[in-house]
Automatic annotation (TrEMBL):
Name of the protein: undecaprenyl-diphosphate phosphatase
GO molecular function (one): undecaprenyl-diphosphatase activity
Keywords of this entry: Cell membrane, Hydrolase, Membrane, Transmembrane, Transmembrane helix
Class of the enzyme per the UniProt entry, highest EC level: hydrolase
Ranges where the Phosphatidic acid phosphatase type 2/haloperoxidase domain occurs: 59-167
Entry's localization field: Cell membrane
Cross-referenced CDD domains: PAP2_like
Annotated EC: 3.6.1.27
Source organism of the structure: Marinomonas aquimarina
Length: 171
């Protein structure tokens, strides 16, 4: 349990360090846009577009992999029940209202890294762009004050793992 307290204390320190080093208004606006680009319904639209263009296998990889990611994400959220920064830090208010109560892992980050992996498999010449976008999604969730750094790190790991499994089974 001592190790978890050490990780939490490091996480809180890193969170405060990041919060102190951003231009609030500009970063908040940019973070909102970047964060919205990783909303789950957009992935469903992408899968439908792939299906419509005759890329059914790609659509199935997204649908099955994202479904797996969502199930594992919900299990982890309900199991860990880690409160969000605004709920445990004194005098801190997040810049957006999160869609659920708990912060670990970051679902936006998980979905973004899932998509970055998939899109990089299909369009390898753009992998740097895809992973840069997913890293910006992770940072945006911290800058918006709804996640600690380890929430986004676990989200990245979860999304990448689910994409790897999806490709291993369906590709």
């Amino acid at each position: 349990m001592n190790i978890l307290n050490s990780i939490h204390n490091m996480d809180v320190s890193t969170f405060y360090w990041l919060m102190a080093r951003k231009h609030r208004q500009l970063m908040t606006r940019v973070s909102r846009i970047v964060s919205m680009s990783a909303d789950g319904p957009l992935y469903v639209l992408l899968a439908l577009a792939f299906w419509a263009f005759g890329l059914q296998n790609w659509a199935l990889i997204i649908i099955a992999g994202f479904a797996l990611e969502r199930v594992l994400y919900l299990i982890l959220k309900k199991s860990f029940k880690r409160n969000r920064p605004a709920d445990i830090l004194d005098d801190f208010t997040s810049f957006i209202r999160p869609s659920d109560k708990f912060s670990f892992p970051s679902g936006h980050t998980s979905g973004a890294f899932f998509m970055a992996y998939c899109l990089s498999e299909w369009f390898p010449e753009f992998y740097l762009s895809f992973y840069s976008w997913s890293a910006m999604v992770a940072m945006s969730r911290i800058f918006l004050g709804v996640h600690f750094p380890t929430d986004t790190a676990m989200g990245a790991l979860l999304g990448t793992t689910c994409a790897m499994l999806s490709f291993g089974v369906l590709a």
